[in-house]
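tool=predict chain=A
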Amino acid sequence: MTPLCLDPGCIHAYSLAYAYAYAYTNIKVITMNETERHVRLFRNGRNQALRIPREFELEGEEAILRKEGDRLIIEPVRKGQLLALLASLEPLTEEFPDIDEDLPQLDEPDL
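tool=predict ok
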């Protein structure tokens, strides 16, 4: 565990996270790990953008972006996954019910 740095000149990210956790919650310690990274936002024309660090690169050329509350979720578009999923499922063994047995016969069309 990284020691807590209370020196006002200390700007070590872990120390700041520990100081914040200690000062405001005094219950749990916040640590930064390999799944988090501080990034800067910038403007690209009329769009807001960010650079994705190499360790977070997504596979493929497309991604799906969705918003959940104040979070943005980015997921790669994986093509061909539906066929792989269907191939992995067990085949159905039960028969489908005949739902049209009580319906009247259809009239033959006049051609």
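Helices lie at 13-24, 81-88. Residues 1-7, 10-14, 23-32 have pLDDT under 50 and may be disordered.
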